[in-house]
Write a structure and sequence with these properties.
Largest sheet: 6 strands, antiparallel
Strand content: 25-35%
CATH architecture: 2-Layer Sandwich
Shape: globular
Structural class: alpha+beta
Radius of gyration: 14 Å
């Protein structure tokens, strides 16, 4: 992990210890990742819909386009991450039939599912205007960012 990533993780962990809500923590993570990580062109959290556990609804996000507001769990890369319970990284979304377009500018996406008490609660979704933006090191970093939100949600 590089120094910027390490610094951001420390910041997120410190912020989480005094965060007023999961939403405020998610807003902070989105804003700082979007600001500091130049290839993270859209950063957001999707949350399991409290009225329909087969749908994800948009939570806090930062980016230059309006995302899909609701995503059924059987749709898109977010749905794939929810179904498999594993991080999904697609280096070129144009070559993946599962991709649910949010913007024609997006070339690459990573989705990390967040489980609370072994149940899907949210996902951290990051999209880039550059192909192959998420190396294995980047994936580990994004998963650790999601883990900060997960730990907060487990406690509260």
């Amino acid at each position: 992990m590089n120094s910027i990533q390490e610094e951001l993780l420390r910041e997120f962990q410190e912020f989480s210890s005094g965060a007023k809500s999961a939403a405020s923590l998610m807003e902070h993570i989105c804003a700082r990742l979007h600001e500091k990580m130049t290839r993270y062109n859209w950063v957001g959290f999707y949350l399991l819909d409290p009225t329909d556990d087969n749908v994800l609804v948009i939570g806090p996000f930062v980016g230059s386009f309006t995302p899909n507001a609701r995503i059924p769990l059987n749709t898109g890369l977010c749905g794939a991450a929810a179904r498999t319970g594993e991080t999904v990284v697609v280096d070129d979304v144009g070559k993946d039939p599962r991709y649910l377009a949010g913007s024609p500018l997006v070339k690459c996406e990573i989705v990390v599912p967040i489980f609370v008490k072994r149940k899907l609660a949210a996902e951290l979704d990051i999209e880039s205007y550059f192909t192959s933006a998420f190396s294995q090191e980047e994936q580990k970093f994004v998963e650790e960012c999601a883990a900060v939100a997960q730990k907060y949600m487990e406690k509260h």
